C-alpha cells in the first residue's frame, strides 16, 4: 500500500458525502513516476495506468455515517439461557466475557465454569484437504484453589488429560465445518472454576459447539456433548464425580439434533445392547441442548462468512476423471499399500502434467492470484491528465485497445490435487459397493491375515509382535514397583498414581516415510489411552499382583487400525510377562460407506470390518471397538459425515463382535505362545502386612532404619504404607528373604510361651541379663531365671556375647519383655534341689515327703528375691540408666543371703506353658494379635513356635 507523506500516517477520515458517492461510482486513479510528470506530488509517475475499482457493496444496515466517528463504541448485550441436562440445568451466557472474539461463551454446571472462545484469521490460508482448525483446552489450577506443582507455579504444556479433551472437542466439530473455507480457526477453552463434582470435559464440548455457532465460521450443524454413566441399572446424564466412582460405564457422546458425531469411552465388559441404550439416552440429551442453542444463535449469532468458501470448479472434476479414470480402476486393485501409494502419486503427477500442457494449469502463482485492489486513495491533482476509459497512456504514444482472444480458464495446482483425491475416494467407494470387493480382495466383513509371536526380546519382561495384514505392533511389558508408577497432577484427579499405563508411538518409518521425531503427538496420546482403557479391565488387583505395569506399543508397520493392533499385541505381551489377566482382549476398527445409492447400491449403509488406511481416509466412519466375546471394554467413533443414526451403530457393533471372535481365535494360534510365567529378569515383590503402628519402627528416625535394611540386604526398594502394608522389591530371592526376616523381627508381636534359640546376651546388670531375641528387640532375663541353681551375680555364670536359649514368660503393660532361661533347663533332682535347714528340720522333712508322695510338685530353692521395678525392664537403649540405678539399690550381700531363711516355692510339674509367670488371659490376647508369620526358605517358621534367631 502506498502512503501519502502529507498524511504522516493514516489518511484522514473521508467525509460522508464522498463515501456515499464512492459506493455508487467508479473512480480512476493515476500513478506517475517522479521526474516526468507535471504533478507536484513527489510520488507522481511518468507512466499512468488506468485501474478500475469496483464499487464497494455495503449494505444499508452497516452504512457509515458521521456518528461513526464520534468516539462511541458498540457494546454487545449479554444473553443467557438455562438448558435442562439430566436432573439439573446448565447455564449458558454470551456477550459478557471475551466480546472481541468472533464467538465466546461461558457454560456453568454447579460451580464448574468453562469459558470458550472461537476466532478466525482475516486472511485465508493455502487450500488443503485438512480444515485449519486448532483446539486448546486448559485446566487452570486456580479453578480449584491450587497452584501448579512445578517450579514456575504456572500451567505449562498441555498434559495428556488435557490433550484427550482437546481431541474430544475437535473430532465432532471437524465434520460440521464447510469444505472450501480456509480461514484458520482457533478454539480456546479454559476451566475457570471447578467444584470437584461436575466434570468440565463434556461442558467444554458443548461450550465449543456454542462458540462456533455464535461466530462467523460457516458450519452445518450445532453440536453439544454429554457424559453418560451407568450406576446399577440406571443411566445418568452428566453424572457427578462421586456417581462415576460407582459407574460401570464412562461414555462421552457428541452430536447434533439429528445424528451422532462422536462417541468415546470405556466400560467393564458391557454388552452391545446396553451401550446402545446409553447412546440413545445421550442423543436425546444432546438434542435438547442443540435446540436451545439454535434459539440463542438466532438472537445474538453473527452472520456466517459463506462468501469466503472457495470450492474447485465443477469442470475440473470432469477433466480429472477423463484423464485418470481408467488407470484409477487398475491402481486401486493393487493389494499392497506402498506400490499402490506410489502408483497413485505417479498418476497424480500425470494428471497435472496433462492439464498443464493443455493450458488449464499453470504453476506460476501470479496467474492464479486474486486481483489486487488498492486500498489507498491518492489525492487527485488538478493538473493530472485524465485518461479516457479504455485507452492506455504510454507517455506521448496513445495505443487504442484491441479485443483479446478468449483464453482457457486456469486451475490452481492445489485444486487439481484436491479434486484428484476426491475422485480417487469416489472410485474406491464405487469399487467396494459395485464389486463387493475391497482393494485387498476381502469381503466387507472379512478380516486380514493375522499372525503373532511372543518372547522376541529375551531381556524384556514380556514381548509380543502382532501382525494383521500390513499393520504391525511390537508390544513390550515392563514390571516394576511403586517407584515406576506414573504420577498425574491435574485438576480432576489430585495426585493420582497409575499402576498401569500404555504408551503408543507411531514413528514415520512405519509408513515408509521420513519425519521429525519428538514429543508424542495428540494422535499418539489418544491412541495410547484408547488401548490402555481397553486392557485395564482384565488386569488383576494390586493385592493379587503388586506390580506397576508399563506397556509400550511401537507401530513398526501401519495400514490402518494400529491402535487396535496395540490392544491385541499388548494383551499377548501381558500374558508373556506372567501377568494373570482375566481374559484375552481383541480390538477391531469398523468403517462405512454411507451413500451407496450413488454407486448403484440399495441405499443401505455398507459396514466394513477391519478397515485399512485408504478405507479410513475415503470412508465415512472410523469405529474402534475392543473387548472379548462377552462384552466391550473400550470404544471410539469418528465420522466424516454429518452424523449417523442408532440403527447404523447397532449394525456396526454386531459386526464388530463377530470380527472380535475371529481375531481372538487367531490370537490363540500365537507361535511361540505366551510364557504365562514371571520372567527371570523381572523384579521380585513380596507383600507383608504388619501392624500400622509398627511402620515407624521399619522407617526409623529420618528413614535411617529402612535405608540400613536396603544397604544391608541389597534389595532395590522397601515401600511402606500407612495401613501396614510393606512391599519389598528385590532382584533375587536371597536378598528378599533376608529383608523379610529383618522386617518380621522388627515388627513381630511376641507371644508368651514363644521360645527363642541361640540369642545373644547384649549386657549384664546385677539383677539380670538383657538378651536380644530379634534384631532390635531385647528382653530382661532376671537373675532368678538365668539358672536353676542359685546365683549371687549374673557375671558369675555369663558374660556379654554369650548365646542362650530363652522363653518369653511375661509382657507387661508397657510392652517390655521378661525372659526365662531356667524354664528351658532340665528339672533338677529333689535331693539337689533341697538344702537342709538347721532352723526347723521337722517341717522341712515333712514338706519334702509330702511333695514326693504327691509327685505333682517340686521344691525349688530360690535366692532372696530382688524387687525389680518397671524401669529395670526397659530395653537396651536405657541400659546405662539401669546400671546407674542398680548401683543405688539396696541388695543384700551374699553373706546376708546365707543367713536369710530360704523360701520354698511349690511349682507344678508339667509343660513350659504352665509357668506361674504366664497369665492365661494375656496369653490368649497376645496370640490373637499376631498379624502374620514369615516363613523362611526351608519352610520353617521364623516367628511362631520356636524362632531360631541368629542361628
Automatic annotation (TrEMBL):
* Cross-referenced Pfam families: KH_1 (PF00013), RNase_PH (PF01138), RNase_PH_C (PF03725), S1 (PF00575)
**EC number(s) per entry:** 2.7.7.8
Cellular compartments annotated: Plastid, Chloroplast
Instruction: Note the CDD domains from the entry.
Output: KH-I_PNPase (cd02393), RNase_PH_PNPase_2 (cd11364), S1_PNPase (cd04472)
Using the UniProt annotation, give all residue ranges assigned to the region (Disordered): 820-951
Q: Which domain of life is it from?
A: Eukaryota
Set out the biological process GO terms recorded for this chain's protein: mitochondrial mRNA catabolic process; mitochondrial RNA 3'-end processing; mRNA processing; rRNA processing; tRNA processing
Name any GO cellular component annotation.
chloroplast stroma
Q: Which GO terms describe its molecular function?
A: 3'-5'-RNA exonuclease activity; polyribonucleotide nucleotidyltransferase activity; RNA binding
Biased region (Polar residues) positions are 836-852
Please indicate if the UniProt record lists tRNA processing as a keyword. yes
What SUPFAM superfamilies does the annotation carry?
Answer: Eukaryotic type KH-domain (KH-domain type I), Nucleic acid-binding proteins, Ribonuclease PH domain 2-like, Ribosomal protein S5 domain 2-like
Point to the regions of Basic and acidic residues compositional bias: 867-882
Supply the alphabetized keyword list: Chloroplast, Exonuclease, Hydrolase, mRNA processing, Nuclease, Nucleotidyltransferase, Plastid, RNA-binding, rRNA processing, Transferase, Transit peptide, tRNA processing
Residue intervals of the S1 motif domain: 753-822
Q: Note the SMART domains from the entry.
A: KH (SM00322), S1 (SM00316)
Membership in a protein family: Belongs to the polyribonucleotide nucleotidyltransferase family.
Name the chain's protein.
polyribonucleotide nucleotidyltransferase
